[in-house]
# Entry
Amino acid sequence: MQSIHLTGDALWSRMERAVEKVQERLRRAVAVLEATGVPYAVVGGHAVRVWVSQVDEAAVRNTKDVDILIRREDMDKIRPAMEEAGFVFRQSAGLTMFLDGPEGNPREAIHLVFAGEQVREGEPQSNPTLGDSAPVDDFKTIGLETLVKMKLNSFRLKDRVHLIDMLDVGLIDKGWVTRLPDALGARLQRLIDDPDA
# Structure
């Protein structure tokens, strides 16, 4: 059996720092994007956090990476600005990302999602454009309906968990099924019928 080596203050400090590091990385990345003036929107788990926190802060989940929706044609502006801020450009396994420094972990990277493009073959829809973004303090996130569509489109385990969180706090409900494209509405209905599947 695996034993736990860290205890007491060292353990608490490490757990707290893990959350703080993600928040700092998000703030640094959006500050760079704001300074470049390019359109963008925070998507993924951080966008879910923004929306869920509007209803119930106890339902907010931590997430380890940062997903940002951009236009591919803006990479020429974004890449040098991010690199100047200490991020390291990397493409791996079909993903485009910025590591947090030369020793950065891809699991903790800034992952770029390209507007209007399909992430994986076979997904019902392409990524949205940047027309539906909502300002949140000092950064922009994606609108709720667009976020729900993105999560239903990807429909990985973490996407389903995020959707269940949004259902649990009442951000979305069964009334959304008919307002979504058929393929996405069917996925939402499946999740409503059997959240544990």
